[in-house]
Amino acid sequence: MSTITVTLREEHLSRLRDRAEAVGTTAEELVRANIEAWLVDPPADLDRITDYLLQKNRELYRRLA
Fold first, then answer.
1. Which of 4, 6, 38, 33 is nearest to 19 (CA)?
2. Cα gap 10→45, rounded to integer Å
3. Where does residue 17 rank: exposed (0-12), middle (13-18), buried (19+ CB within 10 A)?
4. Is the pTM higher than 0.70?
5. DSSP the chain
6. pLDDT band of 47, cuts 50, 70, 90
7. Interval 27-36: pLDDT, tens
8. Closest CA to 6 of 26, 24, 25, 32
9. Local confidence band at 43 (pLDDT 50, 70, 90 cut-offs)
10. What is the pLDDT of residue 50?
11. What residue spans define the domains of the chain?
């Protein structure tokens, strides 16, 4: 198993923690479960969203490489 780090705005982290608490789990577990579900059954427009994000951040990715 691997680990990744994601940076969130404080307000989003607070909302994530609130939602996790509401369903009786941790923020980390809620994110993990949602990512796994998303990977198993991706939304129909996943390719469009991915293409948009890659194009939008192409220069940033080039600089980081």
1. 33
2. 28
3. middle
4. no
5. ---------HHHHHHHHHHHHHTTS-HHHHHHHHHHHHHHS--TTHHHHHHHHHHHTHHHHHHH-
6. confident
7. 999 999 999 9
8. 32
9. confident
10. 80
11. 10-64
